[in-house]
């Protein structure tokens, strides 16, 4: 499909505001509220910079989300899909050439007063670019080898650059979201099976030749090859102690021992789910996971209702990105996957993950509001 035809879309600002997907918006607000509560607990019950910054950051991004969703329709997102991907890729190359190194990783690009993390742009860029590719591709060509090469290269190029930074967690997010869009775009099962075999070989090669020492140590602890409770295994050990002692209802708000006594590291970012379970128990953890599950379900509902293939794939790609965030983070804190530094979206402290997810849901809300646009070439080309 290459032509764009305009279906019926809400005409007035009031109509657009009223027809926004308020179910998705409500869940986003609820998750951000959980984040503020937990950062208040991280700050030992004080309204310090952390809970206030988290709440204000979300409020600003939510305002931008609502305005953008109302005024930017499907044609806009399709028009910027390839340019956004290209800019993200060029910025990743720029990180290799002149990136800023912090905490042992070269992931940032300083442009004047701005400090950018281009891998965050790529999380959205890869979804939009692949959605546009399959939207404009003849359905009869989706399973042929020749037409699989371009999306494959579109995924591999940023992954290679992100792995070199190193940032294994973000590389996994980009890969998972890209593969989901390829699968929904019509990738054949036999090609998926062949890709899985190649992926296993690639994982072995990455373990032996590409991973940095601290990354390999984390994998070794996860696999049980080494036992390092005071080093590479310390984070997960403390997390398991906190979760294992929480019980059904938890120790109570502001009463977690591992978190309040600072045994639990990175409790405001990567291990904030551990803190939720320790203070509110398995029921509290299940409630948070339920909110994420409902958000994913509503996002997939948007994908199913969209009339354009681009809208379907873009919304599904955002849902896949969210699912990958939540799965890796929660599995990481209980030792089901190695520690790779993935935050819990909307709840963990930090602007990059929140910005990425809010940008993704700007696209989702826009696609839902203008779902009757059943084809798309874009505003500019």
UniProtKB/TrEMBL annotation:
This protein's UniProt keywords: Cell inner membrane, Cell membrane, Cell shape, Cell wall biogenesis/degradation, Glycosyltransferase, Membrane, Peptidoglycan synthesis, Transferase, Transmembrane, Transmembrane helix
Catalysed conversion reaction: [GlcNAc-(1->4)-Mur2Ac(oyl-L-Ala-gamma-D-Glu-L-Lys-D-Ala-D-Ala)](n)-di-trans,octa-cis-undecaprenyl diphosphate + beta-D-GlcNAc-(1->4)-Mur2Ac(oyl-L-Ala-gamma-D-Glu-L-Lys-D-Ala-D-Ala)-di-trans,octa-cis-undecaprenyl diphosphate = [GlcNAc-(1->4)-Mur2Ac(oyl-L-Ala-gamma-D-Glu-L-Lys-D-Ala-D-Ala)](n+1)-di-trans,octa-cis-undecaprenyl diphosphate + di-trans,octa-cis-undecaprenyl diphosphate + H(+)
Protein's pathway: Cell wall biogenesis; peptidoglycan biosynthesis
Membrane-crossing segments per the record: 20-42, 54-72, 84-105, 145-163, 169-189, 196-214, 280-304, 316-340, 346-367
GO molecular function: lipid-linked peptidoglycan transporter activity; peptidoglycan glycosyltransferase activity
Taxonomic superkingdom: Bacteria
Pfam families per record: FTSW_RODA_SPOVE
Catalytic activity, EC: 2.4.99.28
GO biological-process terms attached to the record: cell division; cell wall organization; peptidoglycan biosynthetic process; regulation of cell shape
Cellular-component GO terms for this entry: cell division site; plasma membrane
Subcellular location: Cell inner membrane; Membrane
Membrane topology (UniProt): Multi-pass membrane protein
Main location: membrane
Coiled coil ranges: none
UniProt record similarity statement: Belongs to the SEDS family. MrdB/RodA subfamily.
Family matches, as NCBIfam families: rodA_shape
Function description: Peptidoglycan polymerase that is essential for cell wall elongation.
Name listed for the protein in its UniProt record: Peptidoglycan glycosyltransferase MrdB
């Amino acid at each position: 499909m290459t032509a764009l035809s305009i279906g019926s879309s809400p005409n007035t600002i009031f109509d657009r505001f009223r027809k926004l997907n308020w179910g998705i918006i409500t869940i986003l607000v609820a998750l951000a509220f959980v984040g503020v509560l937990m950062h208040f607990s991280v700050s030992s019950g004080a309204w310090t910079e952390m809970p206030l910054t988290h709440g204000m950051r979300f409020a600003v991004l939510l305002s931008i989300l609502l305005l953008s969703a109302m005024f930017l329709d499907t044609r806009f997102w399709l028009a910027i899909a390839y340019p956004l991907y290209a800019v993200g890729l060029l910025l990743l190359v720029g990180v290799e050439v002149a990136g800023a190194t912090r905490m042992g990783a070269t992931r940032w690009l300083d442009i004047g007063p701005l400090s950018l993390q281009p891998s965050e742009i790529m999380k959205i860029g890869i979804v939009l670019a692949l959605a546009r590719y399959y939207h404009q591709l003849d359905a009869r060509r989706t399973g042929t080898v020749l037409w699989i090469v371009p999306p494959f290269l579109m995924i591999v190029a940023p992954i290679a650059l992100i792995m070199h930074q190193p940032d294994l967690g973000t590389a996994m997010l980009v890969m998972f979201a890209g593969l989901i869009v390829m699968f929904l775009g019509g990738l054949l099962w036999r090609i998926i099976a062949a890709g899985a075999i190649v992926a296993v070989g690639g994982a072995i090669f990455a373990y032996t030749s590409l991973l940095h020492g601290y990354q390999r140590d984390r994998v070794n602890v996860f696999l049980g090859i080494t036992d390092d409770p005071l080093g590479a295994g310390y984070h997960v050990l403390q997390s398991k102690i906190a979760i294992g002692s929480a019980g059904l209802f938890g120790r109570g708000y502001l009463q977690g021992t591992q978190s309040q006594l600072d045994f639990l590291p990175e409790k405001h970012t990567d291990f904030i789910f551990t803190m939720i379970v320790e203070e509110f128990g398995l029921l509290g953890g299940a409630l948070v996971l339920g909110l994420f599950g409902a958000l994913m379900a509503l996002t997939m509902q948007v994908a199913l209702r969209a009339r354009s293939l681009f809208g379907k794939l873009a919304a599904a790609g955002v849902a896949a990105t969210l699912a990958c965030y939540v799965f890796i983070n929660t599995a990481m804190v209980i030792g089901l996957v190695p520690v790779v530094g993935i935050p819990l979206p909307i709840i963990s402290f930090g602007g990059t993950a929140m910005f990425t997810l809010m940008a993704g849901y700007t696209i989702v809300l826009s696609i839902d509001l203008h779902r009757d646009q059943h084809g798309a070439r874009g505003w500019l080309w």
